[in-house]
Amino acid sequence: MGAMLQYVLYLVVLVLVAIPLGTYMKNVMCGRETFLSKFLTPLEEKIYKELQIDKYEQMNWKTYAASVVVFSGIGLVFLFLLQLLQGSLPGNPQGLAGVKWDLSFNTAASFITNTNWQAYSGESTLSYLTQALGLTVQNFVSAATGIAVLFALIRGFIKSKTDGLGNFWVDLTKITLHILLPLNVVISLCLVGGGVVQNLKAGETVALLEPIAITSQGEILEDAKINLETDTVMIGNQEIMDAQIVTEQFVPMGPAASQIAIKQSGTNGGGFNGVNSAHPLENPNAFTNLIEMVSILLIPAALCFTFGLSVKDKKQGLAIFMAMFICLVLALGAIAMNEHHATPQLIQSGAVDISMVNQSGGNMEGKESRFGIATSSAWAAFTTAASNGSVNSMHDSYTPLGGMITMLLMQLGEVIFGGVGCGLYGMLAFAILTVFIAGLMVGRTPEFMGKKIEPYEMKWSVLVCLATPIAILVGSGIGVAVPSVLDSLSNGGAHGFSEVLYAFSSCGGNNGSAFAGFNANTVFLNVSLGLVMLFARFLPIIGTLAIAGSLASKKTIATTSGTLSTTNGMFVFLLILIVLLVGALSFFPALALGPIAEFFSNIA
C-alpha cells in the first residue's frame, strides 16, 4: 500500500506542476507578458542587438533546419576540442588530462543531441571547465533546440498560406532565457538545500569512520575483524592473506547541483558523477529524489498543455497528454510489478526474503536502500519514458521483464513524453500517421487540426517515426557482429545481448542511460554510438520542420460533421495502438532474443 501511494504521489505532483508551467511557456512563446518579463525582456533585447538578430525575421523550414544543424555543428566541434585540450586549460584543479579523440567525439555528439550518454566517470575524466562550459551549456541549448523545433511545428498548424515558421535564434533565446534559466535556478536552490554539492573545490580524500577490508578483486569482506596495528584481517580464526585494508575515501566535489538541475529538467540525463543519481552527493535523500524525478518529465508533460493552448484547442493537448500518460502508467505498473515480485531464483528455497514487511522487499539488487523498489521503479519508468537517461538504480540488475520495459520505452521513439520538445513533435508525427490510417479505414479525407494530411506529410511522418527503430536495429545488428563489442560484455547469452541492445536503444532513443554492465568505452562503440545519436536526433528534426513548412503553406479547413475527431477517447486509443504496433513490430524479434529469452530461461 505504501508503494502504491508513492507511485500516485509522483504522478499527481507531476501533473499539478506541469499545468501552470504549460500556461507560462505558452505565454512566453506567444510574446505575452509574464511575471518575469520586466527583468528578462531588457536582457533579451540586448542579446538581439549585440548579435544583430532581427526578431521579426521569419524563416522557412529549410532556413530554420539549416540554422539548427549549423548551430549544433558548432557546438559539436567546440565541445570536441574543449575535451581534447582540457589538460592545458584552466578550471582543472585535479589536473585531469585531455580526453582521447573517440571518447571526445562520442561525448560531444551525445550532449549536442540531448542524449548525454556517458562512457566515462565524470568526476575522474572531465575538468570543471569542461563540465560547466561544455556540458552544462549544451544541456541548456540542446534542450532549447528541441523546444524550438516543436514551436516551429505548432506554427505550422496555426498559420495558413505562408512559409514563415518563426526565427530559430529568437526561439532559442526566449526558451533559454525565459524558461530554462529561471526554472533551473529554482531547482538548483532546492537541490543545494537538500544537500547536493555545489562548489569549485577539488575532490577531497577523507578518513573512513570505520576501515573496511577488501579482496584483491575489490570485493568487500563481510564480518572481517581488522587490526590496524598489525595490518591483519581475520574472519573467524582464519587470517585472510591477500586482503587489503581501506581507511580513506575519495569524495568528489564541484558544481554538481547546477548541472544536475538542467540535466533533469532538460531531459539531458547523464551524471556529474559516474554512478549518476545513485550517488549520495548527487541525490542524497527522498526530497532531492522527488525534485529530480518530477523534473525529468516536467517540461515534456507541460508542453502538452502548452500545445493545446497554442493551437486554441485544449482538448487536443489533453488528448495527446492522455495518450502519453496512459502509456507511462502502464509501463510503470509493469516495471513495478516485476521488481516487487522479483525472480524465481530469489524466491527459491526462501534464500532471499522478498516480503514487504519492514523492508523494501522484492528485487533490491542494484538499488539503493535509501530509495527502495518503489522510487527506483518510478525513476526507471520516468527516465526512459523521457529521453533523460539519469538513473538512481542500475537497470542491468532489474528483472528481465522489468528491464525490457525500460528498453521498450526508449525504442518507441521517445514519444511517451520523451525529450523536451522532441517527445511531443515525435508523438505528433504518430498522430498524423494515426489520422491517415483512421481516415483510410472509415473512408474520410485525413485531416488533423484543420490541415489536410497528404502524401508529403505522410512520407516525412514515417521517416520521423522510423528513425529511432532504424538507428537502434541497424546499430545493434552491426555491433553484435564486432568482436570488440562482445569483449566489452560482462555477461553472455541473452543478458549479454540485452546489454548491447540496451546501449543502442539508449543512444538511438536519445536517452543516455546504460545497463551498467557494459564497457562502452572502445573506439568502435564510441564512434558507432555517436553516429547513431546524430542520426536519430537530426533526421526527425529535419522531418518535423519539413512537415511544419508544408502545413503552414496550406489553408485551414473548417471542421465539419465529416471531420474525424482527434480529441475523443477513440483517437487516444488509436494513437496508443499505432505507437505500440510500430514498437512491437519493429522490436519484438530483438526483444525475444534478449530479455524475453532470459525471462523464460529463468523460469525453466
Global geometry: globular
Rg, nearest Å: 25 Å
- The ordered string of helix (H) and strand (E) elements is HHHHHHHEEEEEHHHHHHHEEHHHHHH
Termini distance? Answer: 31 Å
Give the biggest beta sheet: 3 strands, antiparallel
Secondary structural class: mainly alpha
SS strand fraction: 5-15%
**Uncertain stretches:** none
Number of helices: 20
Q: Bin the helical content.
A: 55-70%
User: How would you state the average pLDDT, rounded?
Assistant: 87
> How many strands?
7
How is the largest sheet built, in terms of strand order? 2-3-4
Please characterize this protein's 3D structure.
Helix 13 (about 400-410) packs parallel to helix 17. The chain contains 20 helices and seven strands. It has helices at about 1-30, 35-50, 60-85, 100-110, 120-125, 130-160, 170-195, 255-265, 285-310, 315-340, 345, 370-385, 400-410, 420-440, 455-480, 485, 495-510, 525-550, 570-595, 595-604, and strands spanning about 205-215, 225, 230-235, 240, 245-250, 445-450, 450. The mean pLDDT is about 85. A hairpin with a 4-residue loop joins strand 2 (about 225) and strand 3. The chain is mostly helical. A three-stranded antiparallel β-sheet has the order 2-3-4, with no helix packed on it. The relative contact order is 0.12. The radius of gyration is 25 Å and the shape is globular.
Keywords:
single chain, 604 residues, mainly alpha, 3-stranded antiparallel sheet, two-stranded antiparallel sheet, 20 helices
Blueprint of the fold:
Blueprint: H1 2-29, H2 37-51, H3 61-84, H4 101-112, H5 122-125, H6 128-158, H7 168-193, E1 204-214, E2 225-227, E3 232-235, E4 238-239, E5 244-251, H8 256-265, H9 286-310, H10 314-341, H11 344-347, H12 372-385, H13 400-411, H14 422-442, E6 447-448, E7 451-452, H15 455-479, H16 483-487, H17 493-508, H18 523-552, H19 569-593, H20 595-603
Antiparallel strand pairs: 1-5, 2-3, 3-4, 6-7
